[in-house]
Amino acid sequence: MSAPTVLPLLAQVASAVADAIVRARPDMAGADPVVRRSDRADFQSNAALPLAKRAGEPPARLAADLLDGLSGDEVIAEALAAGPGFVNITIADAALWAQVAARAADARLGVGEPATGSRIVIDYSAPNVAKEMHVGHLRTTIIGDALARVFGFLGGEVVRANHLGDWGTQFGMLIQYIDEHPEQPWHTAAVGADATVSTLDGLYRAARAEFDADPDFADRARTRVVALQGGDASTVARWREIVAESERAFGAIYDRLGVLLTPDDYAPESFYNPMLADTVTELLDKGVATHSDGAIVVKSERVNGPDGTPAVLMVRKGDGGYGYDTTDLATIRYRISTLAADRLLYVTDSRQALHFQLIFEAARRAGWLTGAVTVDHVAYGTILGPDGRPFKTRAGGTVRLTDLLDAAVAAARSVVAEKNPGLPAAELDAIAEQAGIGAVKYADLSTGRVKDYTFDPARMTAFNGNTGVYLQYAHARIRSILRRAGDPGPVPVDVTVPLDPAERALILTLDDYATVLDEVARTLEPHRLATHLYELATVFTEFYATCPVLTAPEPLRDNRIAVCQLAARTLAHGLGLLGIAAPARL
Ligand code: ARG
Asked: Is 229 in the pocket of ligand 1 (CB under 6 A)?
């Protein structure tokens, strides 16, 4: 763990209180200083109450002794007893200005790299080959990407694992159908890049129908499955073609969404094929898996299924085939043993909670997953339609991801056009795309992860309220203030200037950035960052309403410009970690 470049005031106060505890009651060294932000002062410590209880003395006396221990600290201007056993702490103006200067001077805004030395595998997005990305892939893609960015910024070595669904019996059926219907074009060259996967999706459905209706076709399709699994050259070549065309289409959506995933991150199901047999053997040898009615299963020792018997992972089917459970077992084994990951995150919807609970349990029993490795199912809730039910098309079908994005960009376009009459169409399109995509991502990431939310383009792109557009606009507004100041480079900060209350609130919020990022990494909840940025935009608005910047006398003007610069950079950076663009104008 490397130390943060600029220690947040919260941590400075906590260490001052910890020192005061040692001075007041040496036997209580190491006790939690219980420091947090306060609405009565800048910070408060609630340590005196539990310590007094422990020592069996009146809280007021302990608090008074803590106050003694805090006097003389140069960061703390004032420490006052409040209520029975609370201490309210006000930071010295000079210390607040010093934080601004130190963060402004650092390319990383003074944020350290506490995740240095850890390797984190994040399983996210994972669409299925020959199927279009749909509403169900939105949350995994953007939550996973935000976590990848946060851990990466905090110094972690992030392995982005896009576990594409590219294997299974359905491909035998699809390949057989395609070969029997050469008159039906599907390649990008014939149907266009936008239509390849939707065409494949349609062909797959046609294949499925024929499979159900025509026993002869069903037989030929089954033979094709065997050919694919057996590595038959022409069948494998066709499969590769289908995979490549699908990957191209996913790549186009990733570009549009502005997520980090590239072909280097593809770790598809087929990648684990050669490891499946070994995985099963190892599970059997270790007594984790057992034979059951011709199949091989792992029976849970902890969880029962709906029928009251132990929940089961299907490790090998009766016909010798492998499925989703086996792949995930081989995957967790590989990520721990071969990739040497310290931390594994699986970003999939909450309905897969039991599946991953069983995978983690099996991996523990097999001895792969030890105390040295942390695993988390990063579960999330459902995207709902206007009717409050899981989002479907009017016809009851699956909503394509592209259509969702188009709807949000269209909504953003009208909002931006209204705000900027006369904006040239090309510029309007570019801004609408950034605002619309940003709005979708922000609406998702600002919602508590496990909650459901409604996909509502008009609400998501509103200029007012807790929206991506509001935050992009807040950032653009600060940039416009700075433009009017002549876009100065680094300005000197005079720490002897007295602070205005709105300025104080803004600086305290700016100083929280590193603490919030640590919380996101700890809780795997990007909405904490979203909420923080919204608060930052709100306190900036209050600051700007009461503290003139451009017309202030020096040295106050420079100080305030430094605060504006830091606010703009922090907002842009935080939006960047959420994967959201921060255009200079909106
Ligand atoms: N391909 C699956 C789907 O689209 C998601 C895979 C999630 N990741 C995993 N390791 N099981 O539903």
From this structure: no
